[in-house]
Amino acid sequence: MTIPTDTPQSFASLALSSAMLANLESLGYREMTAIQAASLPEILQQRDVIAQAKTGSGKTAAFGIGILAKLNPAYFAVQGLVVCPTRELADQVANELRRLARCIDNVKILTLTGGTAMRPQIASLEHGAHIVVATPGRLLDHIGRNSINLGTVQTLVLDEADRMVDMGFYEDIVGIVAACSPRRQTLLFSATYPDDMRQANQSFLRDPVEIKVEAQHASSQIEQLFFMVTPEERNQAVAQLLFAYRPTSTLAFCNTKIHCRELTEELQAQGIDAIALYGDLEQRERDE
Ligand code: ADP
Ligand code: MG
Questions:
Q1: Per the domain annotation, does 219 fall within a domain?
Q2: d(CA 16, ligand 2 centre) in Å
């Protein structure tokens, strides 16, 4: 199903509690984004969903509202599980879920990601969590140690599923899915959904509805420029472009960690306020 993106729809058309509707209003969510309008009715009907939409289209609230709509805060067990590719994304998702959960008393949302000690996570799990947001490796560690019980999961979300596969997490996800209750609802969110992934995921999902929202910006609204430079000129060319265009903020993507470091050093040497972000950094540096 492919949905046009220009028909605004109110959250009030959904079967949500008045507390949730008021909360969404207070968050400034006046109408549903296209992916929310297309997926939430299916999610709230307990269908398994494969949702494809670009970054920034409000996918977190789509699955977050779905998890919270059927959450029982009086039952201290993991009812919602969200698996994300990186720690940073897990933190972002947990923050958004906390904002969405403001309208329900005593919802405990726990992040389980690598790079921090196991022990405090185990202690938090012992205290009980309703929703866990996790990266695959750390979650598998907990499953292996029996420090988490996923048999009570009602909603399993695989967020940024394509990126998790790209990062080599497919086998981990198979293990995580196997640890979850077979009676769960499964929601898969992805920017792309290639055929091999469709094949691989078949066993995770039960008669899923596929929803795809086309990119909202026409390509004509984004100007793309291509500069051909030699490898030796490359870092210098980036600096020159920044001086020429003077953007307030910029993201530069490099294909290796080494190149990230080199480019950052070059930009800093030219007086540009630049920092590098890549996998090997300490968690503190990454958060910064
Ligand atoms: P995605 O996961 O699709 O990349 P996010 O879930 O991170 O996108 O949402 C992007 C931003 O949009 C967030 O800042 C979120 O708070 C905001 N947002 C989500 N839903 C709505 C809505 N219905 N109205 C306004 N803003 C929204
Ligand atoms: Mg997202």
A1: no
A2: 22
Decide which of 176, 192, 213 is a domain's last residue.
Answer: 213
> Ligand 1 atom 12: the closest Cα is on which residue?
58
Residues with C-beta less than 6 Å from any ligand 1 atom: 29, 32-33, 36, 53, 55-61, 96
Residue 26 domain flag: yes
Using CA atoms, how far apart are residues 157 and 163, in angstroms rounded to an integer?
14
Residue 57 CA, ligand 1 centroid: distance in Å = 6
Assess whether pLDDT exceeds 60 at residue 5: no
Token pair for 276: 């590098």
Structure tokens at 8: 């605004």
Q: Is residue 220 part of a domain?
A: no
Please choose from 21, 23, 29 the residue to mutate so as to test ligand 1's pocket, defined by most ligand atoms within 8 A of CB.
29
Asked whether residue 196 falls in the same domain as residue 272, the answer is no
The ligand whose atoms approach the alpha carbon of 160 most closely is 2
- Do 117 and 239 lie in one domain? The reply is no
Establish if 28 belongs to a structural domain.
Answer: yes
pTM of the predicted model as reported, rounded to 2 decimal places:
0.81
Pocket test for ligand 1, best of 35, 57, 83, 158 (most atoms within 8 A of CB): 57
**What would the pLDDT profile of 91-145 be if each residue is shown by its tens digit?**
999 999 999 999 999 999 999 999 899 999 999 999 999 999 999 999 999 999 9
Whole-number Å distance between alpha carbons of 98 and 27: 12
- CA-CA distance, 162 to 170, in Å (whole number)? 10
Same domain (yes/no): 134, 18: yes
Tell which of 213, 243, 259 closes a domain.
213
Q: Are residues 41 and 211 in contact, defined by beta-carbon separation less than 8 angstroms?
A: no
Q: Domain span at residue 172?
A: 2-213
Which residue's C-alpha comes closest to atom 24 of ligand 1?
A: 29
- Give the Cα separation of 95 and 83 in Å (integer): 14
